[in-house]
Design brief:
The chain has about 425 residues and is mainly α. The protein has 18 helices and 2 strands. Strand 1 and strand 2 form a beta hairpin. It is globular, with a radius of gyration of 21 Å.
Amino acid sequence: MAEAIAGGGAPVPRAGRYRWMIIALLFAATTVNYIDRTMLGLLAPVLGDELKWSENDYGNIVTAFQAAYAFGFLFMGWLIDRFGPKIGYAVAITIWTIGHVAHGFAGSVVSFMLARSILGVGEAGHFPSVVRASSEWFPQKERSYAIGWVNSATTIGVILTAPTVALFMRVLGLDWRETFIYTGAFGIVLLILWLNFYSNPRESGKVSEAELAWIEHDPPEKVERIGWSKIVTKREAWAFAAGKFLTDPVWFLMLFWLPKYFSTTYNVDLKVVLLPMIIMYLLSDVGSIVGGWVSSKLIHQGRSVNFARKVTMLGAGCCVLPLLFVSGLDNMWLAVFLIGIALAGHQAFSSTILSIPPDMFPKRAVGSVIGLGGFAGGIGGMIMAKSTGLVLDATGGNYTIIFAVCTTTYFLAVLAIHVLSPRLAPVTVEDAAASA
């Protein structure tokens, strides 16, 4: 069936499937990324007892990751735009794998902060690479759906962290230090796969002419690149950054504090009792895919990109509201369900907002714009991490205030995006040309 008109000419049919192999590769990469990122949060109760961490100590370790992750985005976004996703992501994988392995040699709060900082810099290259690669391999009508599938792997990584830790520590008999060291092999395998299998569509040699026509059927870009000096002056870039600043911290909170929340509130160790984690994160997977699908479907039906993206984000924000009722629940399974719905809302929002930079900027500026948004999200996450540690210490571990704040951020994010970019319009050719 004809799906698009190329340059005002003949309809271009949707064809071929090789582009979905790239999504499968990015899916696997995201899974490894999140296993490495999540392992500390899952081991936090054990490490806290062994190394005598306070809530504030753990907050400082998480804050170190957030700070490095934030500033790493600025460098990694530029690197990926400058050298392309193949080289840029290879550098990112190498750095974060070194940081992950370094956890096995840490023994103090400061050394853990250093290991988390190296991990953060490397992992900052992940989403700029994902979105840049998706913009190379998918037209606008499919892009948010494709990103939704990749984004869903974040929760697969979280789910697989517990059995991975159990395999290495309980089955193979390794301690936590050896577990960090040996799981570094995942990053090495990923690096080899990425360097061997990724390329852009025209250089791959595996894409049919019909599929290539579908991938490239969007109107051609009239400018190749927008430099940093112009990106930071564009309201469209700050619209994306504002949304990330407000919503990314909620996801980081869930990654780093959920194991501790279930341990202290319900006396449940998520390394042992996996079902709560599986339920919550499978629900979030559904949100990620459905959010991307809804946004793409609305565009297919003739709705504007502006309408499709913003309506989807508003709906996603509504799904986070059940988090208001979690704190104080005696029924753990009800809490699991409500948190799962909230996580689904976040992931639906995330899939959609990650599709916005390619809507507004040329491909060779996407990495930098994602980098700016990731920097803002990392700063927000750093503030959240430090604030959460202080609030929990001050309230004796009560999450009511924290969860209440989380539910408001999505609506504030949509409002900020709408104020800064009322139409989600592409940057003007005149402005872009002046900045090249």
